[in-house]
Amino acid sequence: MNTITRIVAKGLLITVLFGSAVFATERKPLFVREGVWRGVFTVNEASVPFNFEFKGKDPEHVVFSLITGSRRDDFMVKRIADDSLFIKMNTYDAALFARIESDGRITGEYRKLTPDFRENALPFVAEAGKKYRFTEPGKDVKPGADLSGKWELQIYGKEPIPNRIGLLKQNGNKLTGVIMSVLGDSRELEGTVQGNEFELSGFTGPSPIYIKGHINNDKSFTGELSLGTDNNVKLDGNKNPYAELPDLNKLTYLKEGNKEPDFPLPDLNGGQISLSDALCKGQAVNEEVTSAWYLNCIYHTASLAPRFRKNKAHGVEVIATGFEQKEEVEYARYTLRNLKDKYSIEYDIPFGSIADKKVVSETLPSLNRMMAFPTTITIDLNGDISRYHQLVSCA
């Protein structure tokens, strides 16, 4: 190769390399495929599937919808890099961090956003176009039993746990249901029965729920219940059409000698508010013990806020004391203000303290104990408590 040829060849090589660099720089950012997807979390070494849909061709307009049975929960998507997405779980202080891979899959993590929260993140992988949940089409095994009906569930944990009730419905291999307890319910779960094994999962924004079990010869079952990043417990199930939860109106009551659970607590505007402020107006009051992070509280708020707007002119007041995942007032004002904006809440939401039932009982010392989020305390025009209610289902 002569000198001129070498120079031309070298120049061509430089041009090709430079052109490749320009092409790489101008590469169009990756985005997700519209339609239904199947994601799989890794929870305590178990694979926990969930289904979702992307609708919209660009991150400025796309909606991310979690799908469980007949239920859909919508969330907005934000691009944080050319190949990365951030999906905030609405008022829950958690999010999905997702990376779009070159093969079209999505990988990422479910993370709590609470400052200094050290709970482990949950990794996940998702593939487009897969609508099944647990078992691929054509690979079903004949069910060993029909699990439809009401089930009494005995839970085994490190500390005593009140029994729960399972309401299940089975159609062939498909299994759906809800788990109810004095603390709330699981929302809709979806799963499958394969031979003598069954699985259920649910994900609506808070940590995913996963149940797996084995059907015994006597048609009872044994299994495990995992609440995502929170805990994992053993359970036994026995079909019982007469199973009932404790009377929810009798779990919490006013201690003898007390009139109402008064409190001076910080509000969202830097001031303080007291229950007696509303009572002085001569109005009946619903005192709500709630939070911006707990599933049942969110759905209760979504129902309560419009009812209050409709009836506030009739002499009814609501005060919703928020108990959050951190004890800091500024953090609570951030989460509770998001809740207020999301549901156009027109009643006051003072901050109680950290979301711990023992702490709630100390914050409201006139009550015997705090059992569940949310709890409603109805106080009449005379300042007397006329009703307590711990909500089981807001679906």
Secondary structural class: alpha+beta
Note the gap between the termini: 79 Å
- CATH fold category name of the largest domain: Glutaredoxin
Q: Superfamily at the CATH H level of the largest domain?
A: Glutaredoxin
Please report the first level of CATH classification, the CATH class of the largest domain.
Answer: Alpha Beta
Strand count, sense and barrel status of the largest sheet are:
9 strands, antiparallel
Question: Which percent range fits the helix content?
Answer: 10-25%
Low-confidence stretches: 1-25, 390-395
Q: Output the number of helix runs.
A: 5
In percent, how much strand structure appears in the residues?
35-45%
Count of folded domains: 3
Looking at the overall shape, the CATH architecture of the largest domain is 3-Layer(aba) Sandwich
Instruction: State mean pLDDT (0 to 100 scale).
Output: 79
In spatial order, strands of the major sheet run: 4-3-2-1-9-8-7-6-5
Number of strands: 25
Outline, from the CA principal axes?
globular
Pfam families: AhpC-TSA
Protein name: Peroxiredoxin family protein
InterPro entries: AhpC/TSA (IPR000866), Thioredoxin-like_sf (IPR036249)
Domain Alkyl hydroperoxide reductase subunit C/ Thiol specific antioxidant: 257-385
Offer a concise description of the structure.
The relative contact order is 0.12.
